[in-house]
Amino acid sequence: MITLEKVTKAYTTRDQRVEAVQAFSGEIQAGEFIIVTGRSGAGKSTLLSLIGGLIRPDAGRVMVDGKELWALSDRDRSRLRCRTMGFVFQFASLIPTLTAVENVLLPTAFLPAGAGGNPARAQALLERVGLADQADRLPWQLSGGQQKRVAVARALLHRPAILLADEPTADLDEQTELEIVDLFTELHRAGTTVVMATHNTDLADRATRHLVLNGGLVSYAS
Amino acid sequence: MSRPVRGPGLVRLTLFNLLRKPGRSSTAVVAVMLAAATVFAGALIGTGVQHAVRVGMGRLGADLMVVPRGAVSATHTALVMGEPVAFYMDGAVAGQVAAVPGVKSVSGQTYVETLASAACCTGRLFLIGFDPATDLTVQPWLYRALGRNLAPDEILVGAHVLTAIPGTMKFFGTEFQVAGQLDPTGMGMDESVFLPAASVAAMAANSVTLAEKPLAIPPGAVSAVMVRLVDPTQDDAMAAKIAAAVPGVAAITGGQVSRGVTRDLANLMSWLLPIAGGVLLVAALLFGLLFSAITAERAREIGLLRAIGATQFQAVAALVGEAALLGAIGGLAGAGAGLGLYSLFQKALLVEFGLPFLWPDALQVAAMGVLVTAGAALLAAATAAWPARRIARLEPHFAIHARG
Asked: Is A176 on the interface with B (CB under 8 A)?
């Protein structure tokens, strides 16, 4: 379970203070599929980063399975991320020198031996996202949509309990977008907690909950 | 052909990253290489000069040398560089020196400068006539290598004298058989030719009819007296004592020669060290700037690694490891380049500064190469540590959303 207690995060630029997330409180139960929508700058990415421990809140607490993320050491927080979370970012974020399958296997560099993820599973995941025949290609040899699917496969390598996806379907064609959302739905049905930020409000009916953010505040919650 | 499928691991990531931008990696390697080459060449010169002095003075076999008072500087040049010199003093000096309390044994030497561009001489060389009965310098080698004394028409040549063995050389119209070549010392001995003093006298007598210009050596004269002391640690005191006891002479100790060489080495280093320091500074700055650019450009990648489980330490280690690897490659290349450059300019450099040089043994050169490589790797890692730490400490969210 993920718990957020009055979590606040603001960014200060040269002459401006932007409240990205304001006193957000809420709980995300294991196995939920939550879709977060809102305009650009509404705080969606920041909220996902706060949940994933990728950014320290200015105030409030974020707890994952009872552990307060920012009370942990960097090592323990990294280990928790590595073992329990999978991330898909808005930008494809593949390592340009690694092939598709090596990119999928990237988390194994930080997982303890035998903690999940092996070449056979990486290959199976690439097959699942429709890229079985692209495994040996380098990122520049793949289209944007293919790169995004490789990133999704990588996020699933170690069977994470929580999948955090920040605009995973941005810039993708409708067909690819649906395929990825279908995959997330399937994972949710299998018990994975999925939190996905998107501009596309049409996807909201796929989720168990829908949050709309505006100026760092929740303006709608179903 | 596809790569075998396996997890990338931090080491492979590092290697792949170096290959990603070969131009930039090469620039960094060249910067380190230049600095490492300068440092390696400097260390090689210092070690080689000290090695030469140690071996050369040991081979000389004497604790001090007695020469005419005005010939100290010429003797130093002859000893260190093998520059031919010729000066003489009364042979009775040997007996007077031997009579000084504290002197264990003495042996006279006669120096001859042969003629350049003359039909009667093989070339301009430094001939040293020694007394086989008392000699301390070549006699030990003779017993070890030939097991006998030199015949009157035989000579020994220093390691750098170009000749065939067996072969012949001609001085002042007299032909000699080359009986052997001495091991290298790095000192003037390598440029010298050794023969019995009696052969020098015979050659001088024959030169009147055989040579373009006769060789004039005062009868019974010697150029230097090699002295072995009862207590070698008292060489400075004994030098003063001999100079006081025997009129018109000066005594040169091994320590004086070493100090002279050290002075000349310091002179060379005062020219070389600022260059090495400057190159090192420029290389460190260039490397630091390059690596700052590399880390800034890869912020998003580092953020990604942090998000999927890399600790700050692992992220820093990946970047610093990359810098260390570049540094090590540059250091190794620099050691090789330093060796090559030094070999090319060795002669000009050492003659210009009047320094002896003897290549240290291969193991010592290899150890210096390892040290320079390790030093370059450490320096590169230290230079990269700050930008790497700055990026790795960035919260992953900001690193991922950085403009890359």
From this structure: no
Mean pLDDT of B124-145: 84
Q: Does A46 touch chain B (CB under 8 A)?
A: yes
Residue of B nearest to A81 (CA): B309
* Three-state secondary structure readout of chain B: CCCCCCCCHHHHHHHHHHHHCHHHHHHHHHHHHHHHHHHHHHHHHHHHHHHHHHHHHHHHCCCEEEEEHHHHHHHHHHHHHCCCCCCCEECHHHHHHHCCCCEEEEEEEEEEECCCCCCCCCCCCEEEEECCCCCCCCHHHHHHHCCCCCCCCEEEECCCCCCCCCCEEEECCEEEEEEEECCCCCCHHHHEEEEEHHHHHHHHHHHHHHCCCCCCCCCCEECEEEEEECCHHHHHHHHHHHHHHCCCEEEEEHHHHHHHHHHHHHHHHHHHHHHHHHHHHHHHHHHHHHHHHHHHHCHHHHHHHHHCCCCHHHHHHHHHHHHHHHHHHHHHHHHHHHHHHHHHHHHHHHHHHCCCCCCCCHHHHHHHHHHHHHHHHHHHHHHHHHHHHHHHHCCHHHHHCCCC
Percent of chain A with pLDDT over 90: 48
What is the predicted ipTM?
0.90
Best mutation target, B18, B308, B311, B313, to test chain A (most A CBs within 10 A): B308
CB-nearest partner of B17 from A46, A79, A97: A97
Would you state the pLDDT for residue A116? 59
Distances (CA, A) of A151 to A93, A100, A125, A148, A155: 7, 9, 11, 5, 6
Residue of chain B minimizing CA distance to A94:
B301
Average pLDDT over residues B125-131: 90
Task: Please tell me which residue, A131 or B14, carries the higher pLDDT value.
Answer: A131
Q: What is the pLDDT of residue B6?
A: 58
**B400 shares contact with chain A (CB less than 8 Å):** yes
